[in-house]
Specification:
single chain; alpha+beta; Beta Polymerase, domain 2; cca-adding enzyme, domain 2; seven-stranded mixed beta sheet; transferase; tRNA binding
Length: about 375
């Protein structure tokens, strides 16, 4: 019986439209590992133009997202699939490959990174495993396809991918020959774009329990090469939430320059703000202090600070977490229109008066209602006119 993911209507229709096509890579790996299958990628033994033609004839919307590299995105029944022509590498430079199309499945599998990613499966559920990926998956081994140094030299991002897959599928010590090739390949990582590096780091940190893999990265010289701001990995091991920015915060050494890190790895504005907010002071004191902190930063940020404090100091802060959870986030009850209704003119003076009223509301523990705040705003506006 074929795995359930092959019977999904969109996947089944694409496999029918492309004779000889198979599911490849992660869907096959995760199905065999008993993990949820997210996206299904398809390989087909024909040129990308022929793939696109056949898919359109089958009623799919086809987007030529990477046709120069043999890949199109097919959307059928509202579900996208990446479909790629079988390829062989002609030349590589550690970042990009020059390829040509082939109909040889083993040749296509040989250019993949790890044995657990080099498997494919036909529409009937028959597994094609040219390099022992199924056995490696069952044993918790992450093994390069063929010679590790050769695979790394083709794309140095595979160093980071090794540790990401080790974190999710590995058991026991990593393969010694792979680690030796990784150590020798670390200088080549300087060729990688920071966007690709951060993408892989983020995926690693979002996975289940990445601390051991990160510690292995450190031992191999990979971590200081890509994240010189990192400190000891002890705190990271105590963060159970699969939140990459929180885990990154736990990994950084005290006093790390967050702005420089965000600039170097080209964080989004939201990522940079999230990381900075997590480093703020932990609220302490009575409920008024906690309400002030909640009004300023919200539950998610404060829970992250609690988790960081627990991870760094090894001290349980469950009581503080429970107190925060029991308090709703206070919301300042006034808007600009409240000042206008009191006769104030729009402009900087009104903004300053609202800010002063909010500061008064915060100082009093965020408990004053809208009428009390309107009265204070009226007082501030009157005072400004005198």
């Amino acid at each position: 019986m074929s795995p359930a993911f092959l019977d999904a209507p969109a996947t089944a229709a694409i496999l029918v439209a492309l004779p000889g096509a198979r599911a490849v890579g992660g869907a096959v790996r995760d199905s065999l590992a008993g993990q949820p299958v997210q996206d299904v990628d398809i390989g087909a033994p024909m040129a990308p133009e022929e793939i696109a033609r056949r898919l359109r004839a089958a009623g799919a919307k086809v987007f030529e997202t990477g046709i120069a590299h043999g890949t199109v995105t097919a959307v059928l029944h509202g579900v996208p699939h990446e479909v790629t022509a079988l390829r062989r590498d002609i030349a590589t430079d550690g970042r990009h490959a020059e390829v040509e199309w082939t109909t040889d499945w083993r040749e296509d599998a040989a250019r993949r990174d790890f044995t657990i990613n080099a498997m494919s499966m036909g529409a009937d559920g028959v597994l094609f495993d040219y390099f022992g990926g199924q056995a490696d998956l069952a044993a918790g081994r992450v093994m390069f396809v063929g010679d590790a140094a050769t695979r790394i030299a083709e794309d140095y991002l595979r160093i980071l991918r090794f540790f990401r897959f080790f974190a999710r599928y590995g058991r026991g010590a990593p393969d010694a020959s792979a680690l030796a090739a990784i150590r020798a390949g670390v200088p080549g990582m300087a060729r990688l774009s920071v966007e690709r590096v951060w993408m892989e780091l983020k995926r690693l940190l979002a996975g289940p329990m990445p601390a051991e893999a990160v510690a292995r990265m450190d031992e191999a010289g990979v971590l200081p090469a890509v994240l010189p701001e990192a400190g000891a990995t002890d705190a990271l091991a105590r963060i159970v939430e699969p939140e990459p920015m929180l885990r990154l915060a736990a990994l950084l050494r005290p006093g790390a320059d967050l702005a420089a890190l965000a600039h170097r790895l080209k964080f989004s504005g939201a990522e940079a703000a999230q990381l900075a907010a997590m480093q703020g002071a932990l609220p302490d004191g009575d409920d008024n202090a906690l309400r002030r902190a909640l009004a300023e930063d919200g539950h998610d940020v404060l829970f992250a600070r609690v988790a960081l404090a627990e991870a760094r100091n090894g001290v349980d802060r469950g009581a503080l977490r429970d107190r925060l959870r029991a308090l709703p986030r206070p919301v300042f009850p006034l808007l600009g229109r409240d000042g206008l209704s009191l006769g104030a003119a729009p402009g900087p003076a009104l903004g300053a008066a609202l800010a002063a009223t909010r500061a008064w509301w915060l100082a009093r523990g965020c408990t004053d209602d809208v009428e009390a705040c309107r009265a204070e705003l009226a007082r501030v506006l009157a005072q400004g006119q005198n």
